[in-house]
Automatic annotation (TrEMBL):
Coiled coil region boundaries: none
Pfam families: DUF2157
All copies of domain DUF2157, residue ranges: 10-155
Keywords: Membrane, Transmembrane, Transmembrane helix
Transmembrane stretches, start-end: 41-59, 65-86, 106-124, 130-149, 156-176, 188-205, 217-236, 242-259, 266-287, 293-313
Protein name as it appears in the record: DUF2157 domain-containing protein
Keyword Membrane: yes
Length: 323
């Protein structure tokens, strides 16, 4: 359905006047089209392809070029990226810094990526870190944290948080939390809950202390997913179940509170969905009879489904968003 059809329907129903319809049609016809996200996607894709291309060139010409030359080229590119970013950076501020030179953000991301390539190459070829793999992970993590705050870059902050989790033997990527983390080990399970909770607290503190408030979403989203999914896994595995129940429900309540504060539908969904899973498991795990479980479950899921419909219709009111 095109704009003209919609406007004609509004005019026929006396929702708007003919003059208003003409003004809206002229605006839709002549308004500017933003290429912001298209250009960002192309630049990010370019960084990925460039990094991949370097890897292919190295693989195919390693015997001809030589290891020292390749290392020198990668190091030179990495150094230039960090120098370019520093040269064009604005002074540090606890608030959000919007650099008019958008290219600097992508150059910094490229520099961090090539730094990882350089470190991995040195470890693979010369074993510079030996068996101290934790050291190889924590060094770029510290550098990325510094760069994220100094140059105000959320993408580099995500890389730093990923490195911190890797240093502890975890991954914080939302789609890989359950697939790539070995939650069968109690130590890792507890570590995941603690790390995720600490990241949530860090996000909350960044807003309260007005230090890079816009970083709070990244901290809470990555850390919260990790902690709650680990807590749910702990509940299902019956290992220190009470602790994980308290942690999971507390974090779910925290998400709902953050959703109301930030008017975020994503945090609201996280809090409600995770809380619903935990509460549903607790209810049905304490019903011993299969017949009682089936009967109660029929009504339970019926009414909770109605609750979902009501929630979808009124979530803006709950979040305090004006119509």
């Amino acid at each position: 359905m095109n704009t003209q059809t919609i406007l004609k329907a509004f005019v026929d129903k006396a929702v708007i006047s003919d003059e208003q319809a003409v003004l809206i049609a002229d605006y839709e016809k002549n308004k500017s089209f933003s290429l912001h996200w298209e250009l960002r996607s192309i630049l990010y894709l370019g960084i990925v392809l460039f990094s991949s291309g370097i890897g292919v060139i190295i693989y195919e010409n390693i015997d001809t070029i030589g290891h020292q030359v390749i290392i020198a080229l990668i190091a030179a590119l990495t150094g230039w990226c960090f120098f370019y970013t520093y040269k064009h950076a604005l002074p540090y501020s606890n608030g959000q810094v919007k650099n008019p030179k958008k290219l600097a953000d992508y150059i910094l991301l490229l520099g961090c990526t090539t730094f990882l390539i350089l470190e991995g190459y040195l470890q693979f070829q010369y074993n510079v870190f030996g068996t101290r793999y934790g050291l190889a992970v924590i060094i770029p993590t510290i550098i990325f944290f510094f760069c994220a705050y100094r140059f105000d870059h959320k993408g580099v902050l995500s890389m730093a948080l990923t490195g911190l989790a890797s240093w502890l033997g975890l991954t914080v990527a939302p789609l890989s939390v359950l697939a790539e983390n070995d939650f069968t080990e109690d130590r890792l399970l507890a570590t995941a809950v603690i790390l995720g909770t600490v990241l949530c607290i860090a996000g909350w503190a960044s807003e309260k202390q007005h230090i890079k408030k816009h970083f709070s979403f990244t901290y809470i989203f990555l850390g919260g997913n990790l902690a709650v999914l680990a807590a749910i896994t702990g509940i299902l595995s019956d290992n220190a179940e009470l602790i994980y129940i308290i942690a999971g429900l507390a974090l779910s309540a925290f998400f709902i509170q953050r959703a109301r504060f930030a008017q975020s539908l994503l945090f609201l969904l996280m809090g409600i969905v995770y809380g619903y899973i935990i509460i549903t498991y607790l209810i049905f795990s304490n019903i011993e009879s299969d017949d009682a479980s089936f009967t109660f479950g029929t009504f339970y899921f019926l009414f909770t489904s109605l609750g979902v419909v009501y929630f979808l219709l009124h979530f803006k009111k709950f979040l305090g968003i004006k119509k």
